[in-house]
Amino acid sequence: METNLDWSNLKFSYYPTDYNVRCYYRNGQWGEIEQTSDVNIPIHMAASCLHYGQECFEGLKAFRCPDGKVRIFRMEANAERMQQSCRGIMMPPLPTEKFCEMVKRVVRLNSRFIPPYESGASLYIRPLVIGISPRVGVQPSEDYLCVMFVAPAGPYFKGGFATNNYVIMRNYDRAAPQGTGRYKVGGNYAASLCANHEAHDSGYAGEFYLDPGEKKYIDECGACNFFGIKNDTYITPMSTSILPSITNDSLRTIAKDIGMKVEVRHVPEEELATFEEAGGCGTAAVISPINRIDDPEAGLSFQISKDGKPGPWSERLYKAYRNIQYGIEPDKYGWTTVIDLD
């Protein structure tokens, strides 16, 4: 069946495809994988996911590559992170083998929606686990559902790999110091909606969060991890309220291999003035280079990019990362999985 999409102008948003796959957890075990064209989930009005936030999700991508193959990037790492999220909110972890089987199946079933290499777009994969047992008292569910769907997606930011301006929001915390910030749960994103809306209304690409304890250290860049570069060193914050980004982990590995030092530590706000380059990093954008970070309440502004363009280290990291995803450079880390569509 022919797919009539303008691949080069796709937005990063939901787009209907042919199938999604599902797996239920009942009687203490995960069942068989099912496939369906139904986009709706029949759910009890008292389900624990609706009332007590028993929900977590992941995001990963499949790429159609110049050699004609389709590759999925670091799906085992996504499986492991989703397992950590599940444990953090008392849900049964989906085994890695089951997770990977579901990813492969949903990609194969929707292979006609994988964008061509030349478009710069990819197939975004969204796994989701929810508690579905009815609950009125605060307690974990007994039954759970894992759903995976896909959507062809363009770049997260309109300008693609280009610098953006951000604003520090002191009136909001994304997550508590010992809360759920290190898990990929919906509540963390709900907590960011107001700050993100205010940032956009003020003309910024997104918001910055300081640490929720002392408001002294950089925590996260919107829904992304933050990194700064100076003196050939890749520096990224350490915090109990930060989601462990698979993209950040990958960039740190590549950084070491191309001759950079790597530091994971507290990053005080005033250190922003010393960075030669900086960016947000995550699945959707890979790297979103930063032009300027403003702190209106403190009357401060940190100009990162001197010419409004991504810096040389950021460009090298971005290119190396993308070349591995697309099979252009050898994958010596074992991050990619080639999927057979036949």
List keywords for this structure.
single chain; D-amino Acid Aminotransferase, Chain A, domain 1; nine-stranded antiparallel β-sheet; 342 residues; alpha+beta; nine-stranded mixed β-sheet; globular; D-amino Acid Aminotransferase, Chain A, domain 2
CATH superfamily (homologous) name of the largest domain: D-amino Acid Aminotransferase, subunit A, domain 2
Count of domains: 2
Low-confidence stretches: none
- Portion in strands: 25-35%
Mean pLDDT score, rounded? 96
Backbone shape: globular
Oligomer: single chain
Output the CATH class name of the largest domain: Alpha Beta
H and E string: EEEHEEEHHEEEHHEEEEHEEEEHE
Largest sheet: 9 strands, antiparallel
Distance linking N and C termini: 15 Å
Count all strands and give the number: 18
Backbone structural class = alpha+beta
Could you tell me the radius of gyration in angstroms? 20 Å
Number of helices: 7
Report helical residue fraction: 10-25%
Q: What is the CATH architecture annotation of the largest domain?
A: Alpha-Beta Barrel
- Look up the CATH topology of the largest domain: D-amino Acid Aminotransferase, Chain A, domain 2
